[in-house]
Amino acid sequence: MKNGIKLIAAFMLVAGTACAEPIVKKLPEPVLEGGRPLMEVFKERKTVRKFSSRPLDDQTLSEILWSAWGISHNGKRTIPTAKNEQNLKVYVIRSDGAWLYDAKDNALLRVSDKNLMPYFNQQNFMKAVPVNLLYTGSDAKYSPMHAGSAYQNVGLYAADKGLHNVVRGYFDADGIKKALNLQDGEEPLISQAIGW
Ligand SMILES: Cc1cc2nc3c(=O)[nH]c(=O)nc-3n(C[C@H](O)[C@H](O)[C@H](O)COP(=O)(O)O)c2cc1C
């Protein structure tokens, strides 16, 4: 319990004034079985720039996040990281605020109660997108590689489930960096719009 309170306090500190009150939202356990054959999924992975207004349910979101950055083996992740530093961060940007994925507790930690979706709305198809993932890191050489591994995993999960997704470099990186009050060299690297 004490650890939980410390974690929340740390996130309030990191998020600075971005967040009015700390909220931790537990996600359902991801289902780690089933799915289509791997070669079919590779073949189906693609960018689709068309979204309905259907929201992403928590089960699907949990599995998306686990694919991107979940813990899968010996405390390690679904993607490799240089020197096993595990220093990628994955944010969920939705109309109800911005959330940091906490893989260890399979939870979302709210880091902003503001709707930050406008920082991602540069292309017409973006208006209906329910979730933007934002990948951040502080290692100039390796963090972009980690983000690339994560968005590829999500792209493959999307192909398996029939979700639409677009990896997007075209977003307001400076704006979202300020809005999230990113510190200590943490930089927005790439985003990924995902929905039905
Ligand atoms: C690093 C990166 C940045 C991208 N940025 C954008 C973007 O800002 N907007 C967009 O519509 N597509 C973006 N894309 C998607 C590419 O245009 C798309 O992957 C490419 O056309 C190939 O299509 P495919 O993904 O269906 O194979 C990006 C892809 C990558 C890998």
Structural summary, described in words:
- With 196 residues, the chain is of the alpha+beta class.
- Strand 4 and strand 5 (97-102) form a beta hairpin.
- The protein is built from five helices and nine strands; from the N terminus they run αβααββββββαβαβ.
- 36% of the residues are buried.
- The model is unreliable at 1-7 and 13-17 (pLDDT under 50).
- A seven-stranded antiparallel beta sheet has the order 1-6-5-4-7-9-8, sandwiched between helices. A two-stranded antiparallel ribbon has the order 2-3.
- It has helices at 2-15, 38-44, 58-69, 143-161, 173-180, and strands spanning 24-26, 71-73, 76-77, 89-94, 97-102, 107-112, 131-137, 164-168, 187-195.
- Helix 2 (38-44) crosses helix 4 (143-161) and helix 3 (58-69) crosses helix 4 (143-161).
- It has a single domain, classed as NADH Oxidase.
- The structure holds flavin mononucleotide.
- Flavin mononucleotide (FMN) is lined by residues 46-47, 49, 123, 166-170, 190.
Descriptive keywords:
196 residues, alpha+beta, NADH Oxidase, two-stranded antiparallel ribbon, 5 helices, 31% helix, 24% strand, binds flavin mononucleotide
C-alpha termini separation: 37 Å
Low-confidence sequence ranges:
1-7, 13-17
**What is the domain total for the residues?**
1
Shape: globular
Name given to the CATH homologous superfamily: NADH Oxidase
CATH architecture name = 3-Layer(aba) Sandwich
| Beta strands, count | 9
Question: Biggest sheet: strands, sense, closure?
Answer: 7 strands, antiparallel
Helices, by number, come to: 5
Q: What structural class do you assign from the helix and strand content?
A: alpha+beta
Query: Bound compounds, please?
Result: flavin mononucleotide
CATH class: Alpha Beta
> Which range best describes the helical content: under 10%, 10-25%, 25-40%, 40-55%, 55-70% or over 70%?
25-40%
Secondary-structure element pattern, one letter each: HEHHEEEEEEHEHE
- Cross-sheet strand order for the largest sheet: 1-6-5-4-7-9-8
Mean pLDDT: 92
CATH topology: NADH Oxidase
Work out the radius of gyration.
16 Å
Strand content: 15-25%
